[in-house]
Amino acid sequence: MKLIKHISILFLVLSTSLLSAQVKFETKVSKKKLGINERLRVDFQMNKDGDNFNPPNFDNFTVVGGPNQSVSTSWINGKKSFQKTYSYFLAPKKRGSFPIKQATINVDGQVYKTSPITITVTKAVDKPKNGDNAEYLATENIHLVAEVSNSNPYLNEAITVVYKLYVSPNTGVSNWREIDNPKFDDFWSQNIDIKGLKILNGTYKGEDYRYVVLRKSVLYPQKTGKLDIEPLSLDITVDVPTKRRDIFGGRLMTQVHRTVSAGNRTINVKPLPETGKPLDFTGAVGEFNFRLMTSKTELNATESLQAKVEVSGKGNLKLFELPKLNVPSSLEVYEPEHKESVRTNLAGMQGSISDSYTIVPQYKGKYPIPSISFSYFDLKTESYKRISSEETVIDVLEGPSYANSDNNAATSSTGKQPVLLSNDQFAFVKTEANLVSKKSTHFFKSTAFWSSLLAPFLAIPLAIAFRRKKAERDADVVGNRLRKADRLAKRYLGEAKKSLGQKEAFYVALEKALHNYLKAKLNIETSDLSKDKIKILLAERQVDPSTISEFDNILESCELARYTPITTVTMQQDYDKAAQTINLIDRQIR
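Above: the chain sequence. Below: its structure as tokens.
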């Protein structure tokens, strides 16, 4: 009996030890039912430390905080307890029932998983208007506002959007981050850099507030009608005062997370009037000056001069084309060099753009460069205006004459000149034939005879080697797919180059070329061609981060080009960047 009693006690002790050593890994949530305007806290808790914690994909939720990690160890009655927690703060994206899927962790070489939990998201709930409730105080004391300079602009007229965060005097903000950025799809846009956040004093709905300017953007609408300006959303850690005080009488603060949004803004874009619109109008809107300048007006033939067509002033300088220079056909003109000296501030674009032509005269004479004109829509008078340049005459002092040329203003003789014959005008005609007799040779036993006889026997091993090589190449399925994709990339780059000047065709071909190049280099399918996947794979192949960023910028340019006016010069720059980036990846990839 004593033996049985001892065995029972030993079994009980071992069972207790095994139970105490059992790993627990579970999910705990702050609530299983919440409104779409509320937050959810999710804790993944374990009673033993592990490695390689892998959270689930929080589909249908936005992670607004976390992961926050906490570890606690305690001894109770000589027994050690351990707890490690990974915490996330989630904001629902829409209403419905959604699962918090399994998380995994590796403990002592074994993988443990949590059980999924279903969360129900309902419509927005009314939060209690309680002065003691931290969530309510944060909602009432924090406001994000988008101030639009003009809600009824013309097409291609600059407007500004300034995002201000208002905070009441008795509330603080310890941290914030952007969770949803406006994309401005129907606008040409540029953000204005803000150097350091300055706290300013102002009023919001008649009450005193402090505020900071978080972002400034200049927009040029590219479509008419009602256009939406997407909201900017922030996740903010708010310091809210409580009724508790410290030992010195100071009020204690508590922190809460708060999502604020600037709200959706709609502007009504007016079309430019059709009345009085010039036929050569290319979309310039603003206040401009126009001039045509030449580096010199007198020179010798085969020397060069520069002719510069320049528009300066204030308006959508990057969004229209300059008028073309017309010169007599006797002057050789090269493709212009486009230059932009434009700065953008809250007033819009200011500066100048120009096309510089290199002109080389071939003959002596006087050549007029006709007057050219530039038309634009003036916002102040709400009417179209035209500026014309003066006619410029180029005087070529020395060089060969170009007589009887309709395209030349040079003075030339119109009389007929007598034809003078010389005694040696037919000197190039041979008068004596130096004929040499050629001996006939026999083909039999000649070098050509033996070569043609032995050639088939020599070709047999070459044909066998070629056939083996071809069989190996045909069997290389992966290699053939890569070579095919590489050929496609080169072909599409060629098509993109042929399509310069045709925006849609050019950027479609360029994007296909980049995608096919990636398929060749990374051995991936079209379904895997996401931006994030591309960045990860290129980084794994040791491609320089700056090169990856440049590649990503080119892909983004291809996407945005459909909504943005693009010049031929910009297309050529994008083509050169694509070719250069592909070359860099070729050299860096491992």
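The domain at 478-588 is CATH 1.20.120 (Four Helix Bundle (Hemerythrin (Met), subunit A)).
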